Amino acid sequence: MPDEGFQTTTAPIHVVHAPSARRNLVLAACLMATFTAAVEGSIIATAMPTIVAELGGFSLFSWVFAVYLLAQSVSIPVYGRLADIYGRKKVFYAGVGVFLVGSTLCGFAGNMQTLILFRALQGFGAGGVQPIATTILGDIYSPTERAHVQGLVSSVFGVVAMLGPSLGAFFVEQLTWQLVFWVNLPIGVTAVVMIAVFLDEAVEHRPHRIDYLGSLLLMLAIAALMVVLVQGGSLPRMATITVGVVGLVTLLVLVLHEKSTPEPMLPLELWRHRIILVGSVGGAIVSGIMMGISMFLPTYVQGAMGRSALAGGLVLGAMSVTWAVASFFGGRLMVRTTYRLTAVMGTLALIVGSLVLITLTPERGLVWVTVGSLLIGVGMGFCNTTFIVSIQAAVPWHQRGAATSSCMFMRFVGQAIGAAAFGAVLNLTLLHDAPETVGMIDRLLEPGLREGLPTADLARLTDVVALGLHNTYVLAGVLSVLALVFASLLPARLSPAGQTQR
User: Fold this and answer.
1) Residues near 27 by Cβ (< 8 Å), separated by ≥ 6?
2) What's 22's domain CATH number?
3) 275 shares its domain with 252
4) pTM
């Protein structure tokens, strides 16, 4: 590959294994783009109380988060397929452009309704940022190099988990809440300029038939099912059932349509590939575990242990640290061993971490819960890196965008299902064992109100919360064993070192 740029074509690609300044700059641009899309899920968390105080509309609070996730999820498969047809650069520009326009408008929102609308636009753009950036890296690096590079990409999410909330708090306390959205602008523009200058893409131009109907059906099906998963608990029962039925029927129509379309928007043959199926489903399970632990670990620290919110944040931060470190070293491990061994080691870390949390009691203190958090982070780093690298190496250029997007999309599905499942376990435990305490849980989490509780009530509430969260950790353990099963289905002796660029 010449030093002037990087060729990504439907023909075999010649990969330069020597260090390249230009390739490193493309990597930097993709990491920046990934950071902007990922940080929006966490930076806004600490800013929302201030935003609600100014804009009003507290009843719509959760939709600010949910609509971003929904819009991002429904657009990921579409962007991935378009990148396989028209090339990565054009689709990357489109995704980043929509994302930055949405980010800009969010800062100008005058009420909660317009903020939700602009967050949806921002989410539609985000669907074309992270997956396409990851696909670009899959194009310009060999399988062995991808193992190292994707470790860096995965570590971005660990950094985001630590930096996002703190950065959001700094902006609202020292500057203005609008900056939680506008901070994306200089980073995103820089990433686009660097991709434009340093990535030389040559795509074979040929006539294409765009599957517009497939795109519409895909987005409708995903949107309906994600609404049920993310907001089903807050919707009327009949509305949830209706939306769910619409989603399933639309999904069935989509499958029938895609089987008869020459260039389907959702290439179903990808799901017949063992590695793609294992990596995508395995990634969804691991993401579900991560979501459940992230949601409820701070709650245990504050509610059952009586510690501060800061202590809860530090315990969760431990998972982010080991996630970033394990992503980096997991890439190196799979090069020296195999995909299967690395993924199995990751799922074993998840199992051991879940066991530590299952045996957690309030008396065991912060050290015990921190060890569990650290182990969960190790499992996340090893598994996520292995699944994405193995998937990208399993397909040629003209399918890599769709395959990468499939993996990314399934992670979002896993997060949504995980959030619903873990929440359901906690709520069912509370309703079954102590329904009279449900309305009092909020007082347990607020230090001032907690101190005013009678000793007997405090002990009762602490026991109930500890039991409910214990059951969520049991669920995490079960899902970790299931993840181990899928990790074991990866080919036994396959590794990045034994594969060539496709």
Assistant:
1) 137, 149, 152
2) 1.20.1250.20
3) no
4) 0.73
